[in-house]
Design a protein that fits this description.
The chain has 463 residues and is an alpha+beta fold. The protein has 23 helices and 12 strands. The strands form 3 sheets. Strands 1-10-9-2-3-6-5-4 form an 8-stranded mixed β-sheet. A two-stranded antiparallel sheet has the order 7-8. The protein is elongated, with a radius of gyration of 27 Å. Bound molecules: adenosine-5'-triphosphate (ATP) and magnesium ion.
């Protein structure tokens, strides 16, 4: 249906060359041309648009939600764009608050749902207007200039994200040919792609993520400048990069995204861990496996922990640093601490990993050492660790990737569910468990394992 409509309406018009020109007016697309019924709009978003419209303001559902509904996907959340100022919106909703420094937005809460309401904004400000400030690379630092509905469409990133849906009439206002582009499965930048990436380099990551998530082809003109402009990502604040990386990795399509990142040359420099890891076969296997598992969990609505994911992405870096520290004769546990701190501080310069994730990551990494210590009371203590489950899942991934012997993972799989007597037996059958000979045999067993490469854990001193 969409295709038929497109042929009729959009054969007259080509999008993608809108830079600097305001479109004459939007295409008004009735429900027969896009198929989105207002029953697909959340109660909260509907309440917001109805209330604003009743007060004489313009109000539409915009962005990802409209795009997802046209593609018959369930939107993650709903955004509303309006002609009302943040203060006017705030005054209309008891449970709302104004947020944001760069963009001032209003969050309207209804029950558990939050709808983000933004005032129409413009990309271009008038001469001498200092509300739009750029850095020396052309990156927009502030662009909180209010504008018309048409301005608001043009300042958005991709044509498929610039669709305005009015739930009261079930009509879409399409300024940039987004419905057409969805019909032909194309992700196209609004305006001049190079200029738009310069204004906000994160749009390069958004292109990769949205294309992978929605199964769209990136239009050649939109794709072409990315390789050359990739270094601009270096100027993006680390916290914003982290946020975007997290979205990308938790999109449910992280394997495809990472492939696209590599293809577009976006992993170089930007993500040192991907750079290094994806080039070593074992590291690549481990990371790909971790990403696959994350995608599977997300697509089946199970929870994922960002700490676990980042711990996996950086694990081979930690392993390498741990090994180096031990080669300098630092004992294993301090060497592991040193390695973890070093890897995290390098990452902090690029991507600000929030402290709470850093703590989780360290616990998971530390458990990798402790899970390899199965003698005496140690195995029981590990079992009581609140992060045991994450540490164990991580170990299983390592086994599956071939980094450590499957025996270690199997042992823990059996041990956690075994009755007490069997647990004792399992511990007793560990090399080096007999107390009298413990010290000598432990060291010997450990060295033998390391020499044969069976555990994958770096060489360690007997403890
Ligand atoms: P998702 O499904 O991940 O939420 P989304 O497109 O809705 O995708 P949001 O980050 O929620 O992404 O942004 C909402 C809308 O704001 C987008 O659809 C787009 O119109 C606009 N937008 C977001 N980021 C940018 C950007 N960097 N440059 C221009 N417009 C943007
Ligand atoms: Mg969204």
């Amino acid at each position: 249906m969409i295709r038929k409509f497109i042929e009729k309406v959009f054969s007259r018009r080509k999008s993608g060359s809108l830079v600097g020109t305001l479109p004459k007016g939007p295409e008004m697309i009735a429900v027969s041309g896009h198929g989105v019924r207002n029953s697909g709009i959340s109660t909260c978003a509907r309440r917001v648009t109805d209330t604003l419209q009743a007060q004489g303001f313009k109000a539409y559902v915009v962005g990802g939600a409209v795009r997802d509904l046209i593609l018959a996907r369930t939107p993650k959340d709903f955004d509303v764009a309006t002609s009302a100022t943040p203060e006017q919106v705030h005054a209309l909703f008891r449970r709302s608050r104004i947020i944001g420094r760069r963009f001032r937005l209003v969050h309207v809460m209804c029950g558990p749902e939050t709808v983000e309401v933004s005032t129409f904004r413009a990309l271009q400000s008038g001469a001498g207007d200092d509300d739009q400030v750029k850095d020396e690379h052309g990156r927009l630092l502030r662009d909180n200039v209010f504008g018309s509905e048409a301005d608001d469409a043009l300042r958005r990133d991709f044509t498929v994200n610039a669709l305005y849906y009015d739930p009261s009439t079930e009509t879409i206002l399409d300024y940039c040919g987004g419905v057409h582009d969805l019909g032909v499965r194309t992700l196209r930048m609004i305006g001049d792609p190079g200029e738009r990436y310069r204004e906000d380099p994160v749009r390069m990551l958004r292109a990769v993520r949205l294309a992978a998530k929605l199964g769209l082809e990136i239009d050649p003109g939109t794709y072409a400048p990315i390789r050359e402009m990739a270094p601009l990502l270096q100027n993006v604040p680390a916290a914003r990069l982290f946020e975007e990386m997290l979205k990308l990795l938790l999109s449910g399509h992280s394997v495809a995204c990472v492939e696209q990142l590599r293809g577009a040359g976006l992993h170089h420099g930007l993500l040192p861990f991907l750079d290094v890891i994806l080039e070593q076969p074992q590291g690549e296997r481990f990371v790909t496996l971790a990403l696959q598992r994350t995608d599977e969990r997300i697509l089946s609505d199970r929870s994922v922990s960002p700490g676990f994911l980042f711990a996996a992405l950086l694990w081979h870096e930690v392993l390498a640093a741990w090994r180096l520290a031990q080669e300098r004769n630092v004992p294993p546990v301090p060497a592991l601490h040193e390695a973890m701190d070093q890897v995290l501080s390098v990452q902090a310069e690029k991507i600000a990993i929030p402290r709470r994730f850093g703590t989780d990551m360290k616990e998971i990494w530390m458990l990798q050492w402790r899970l390899d210590q199965r003698t005496g009371k140690r195995a029981y203590r590990v079992l009581e660790n609140p992060k045991f489950r994450a540490g164990y899942d991580f170990l299983i991934l390592r086994c599956e990737s071939g980094e450590v012997d499957a025996e270690l993972g199997d042992w823990w799989t059996r041990f956690q569910d075994a009755p007490e007597a069997q647990r004792e037996e399992m511990i007793a059958s560990q090399p080096g468990s007999a107390p009298a000979r413990r010290r000598r045999r432990r060291g010997g067993a450990r060295r033998a394992a390391v020499d044969s490469g069976s555990t994958g854990v770096p060489p360690v001193e007997p403890v």
